[in-house]
Write a structure and sequence with these properties.
Layout: E1 14-15, E2 18-19, H1 20-30, E3 35-40, H2 44-52, E4 58-63, H3 70-82, E5 87-90, E6 94-98, H4 102-109, E7 117-123, E8 127-128, E9 136-138, E10 144-146, E11 155-163, H5 180-188, E12 192-196, E13 199-203, H6 207-218
Parallel strand pairs: 3-4, 7-12, 8-13
Antiparallel strand pairs: 1-2, 5-11, 6-13, 7-11, 9-10
């Protein structure tokens, strides 16, 4: 995201006059979330100061100043703050417009008896800033299978999910690792599901994508 991150973390890059972290937190608050855990690393002091100005949700900090731990490692480090119940997990590089509240749909579809993770997905035709071949196939009952060796798949992962945090407990302590193996293990058990976004998703991964997302929001 350089040069936009020369003096700030990616979470504080603005899209449409709002920091990316606030786009994510505002969506969570709209879905009824009252407490969030935010991991900090790059320009951590600036991000913490920004978060202190928010009234909602209540925010706890998981400190990754010493080492950025990736998706799985970050969840493992934050486990004492997360509890044992299912949680929303959010990436901050996602912005979207919606016809119906996406996170409410995710919460309503969640079934802990059948699911270990429930991902928010977007059809490739309804994305901006995402140039990959797609991530998942989705069966009629919502079960997901990864693209694997296929040339393409119809859905991209939006960066928001409901997830059972105990799934990362087997990962190493204080070491980077990905959440992806937990997804694949859940898929093998038939317990990885997806909900399709009723809207349009913008992946904000670089300055050009940020500008394109701003233009889309302005229109």
């Amino acid at each position: 995201m350089r040069p936009l991150t020369n003096d700030r973390p990616k979470a504080l890059v603005e899209v449409g006059g709002k920091a990316l972290v606030d786009h994510a937190l505002d969506r969570l608050v709209e879905a009824g979330v009252t407490r969030a855990v935010v991991n900090v690393h790059y320009f951590a002091d600036a991000l913490e100061a920004h978060l202190k100005a928010r009234a909602t949700p209540a925010i706890a900090i998981s400190d990754e100043r010493a080492l950025l731990l990736e998706t799985g490692g970050g969840l493992k480090k934050a486990r004492p703050l997360l509890g044992e119940g299912p949680i929303f997990v959010a990436n901050i590089d996602s912005v979207w417009t919606e016809t119906a509240p996406a996170l409410n749909a995710l919460a309503e579809a969640w079934d802990p008896e059948r699911m270990d993770a429930l991902l928010l997905l977007a059809p490739l035709s309804q994305t901006l800033g995402f140039d990959g071949p797609g991530d998942f196939f989705r069966a009629e009952d919502g079960r997901l299978s990864h693209r694997g060796g296929a040339a393409s798949a119809p859905y991209a992962y939006v960066g928001f999910q409901i997830f059972k945090p105990a799934l990362v407990d087997g990962g190493p302590d204080n070491a980077p690792f990905s959440i992806f193996p937990s997804w694949m293990a859940a898929a093998e058990r038939g317990r990885l599901f997806g909900v399709v976004l009723d809207g349009f998703w913008m992946h904000v991964g670089d300055p050009e994508a940020r500008d394109a997302a701003e233009a889309r929001l302005a229109s």
